[in-house]
Design goal:
By secondary structure, this protein is an alpha+beta fold. It has a single domain, classed as GAF domain (Beta-Lactamase). The chain has four helices and six strands. A hairpin with a 6-residue loop joins strand 2 and strand 3. The protein is globular.
């Protein structure tokens, strides 16, 4: 297991390409999902400096905050509510260039300006979401979507 993160410089592609193997190494031999999700959130936050990076996990019909890095977060989100709940309900990644323009956006932090939410599949069902917020408008694009979808696919026990 690697316990040191090498921050990559260069293009977004180069940064993700350097980070993904490090995330794999962080999870190597570790079966505890909380530990793995915590290290993924930390690695993404350290590499990209986003405002908030974390996971919400489906528990008893709600998304419940899991491991994250950033300001305090909303604890529970109902299916279909906000960006996270909508991503869960629609079973797809959502890229929101301006959270203030998203109907029903849940403002856990007033500093958040844009967001991407990636559902985490286990078999045929959604078991959680990866949520990333930025202080910049329009911070996320299809490239982020592709790489972050690749990140959730390598979480042990998850089949996206």
């Amino acid at each position: 297991m690697a316990e040191d993160l090498q921050i990559a410089r260069g293009t977004k592609t180069e940064q993700y390409a350097a980070l993904l193997p490090q995330i794999r190494a962080l999870m190597e031999g570790e079966s505890d999902p909380t530990a793995n999700l915590a290290n993924i959130a930390a690695a993404l936050k350290e590499q990209f400096g986003w405002l908030w990076v974390g996971f919400y996990l489906v528990k008893a019909g709600e998304l419940v905050v899991g491991p994250f890095q950033g300001p305090v977060a909303c604890t529970r989100i109902r299916k279909g509510k906000g960006v996270c709940g909508t991503s869960w309900a629609e079973e797809r990644t959502l890229i929101v260039p301006d959270v203030d323009a998203f109907p029903g956006h849940i403002a856990c932090s007033g500093l958040s300006r844009s967001e991407i939410v990636v559902p985490i599949h286990s078999g045929a069902q959604i078991v959680g979401v990866l949520d990333v917020d930025s202080i910049e408008l329009n911070a996320f694009d299809r490239e982020d979507q592709q790489w972050l979808e690749d990140v959730v696919k390598i979480i042990p026990g998850v089949n996206a």
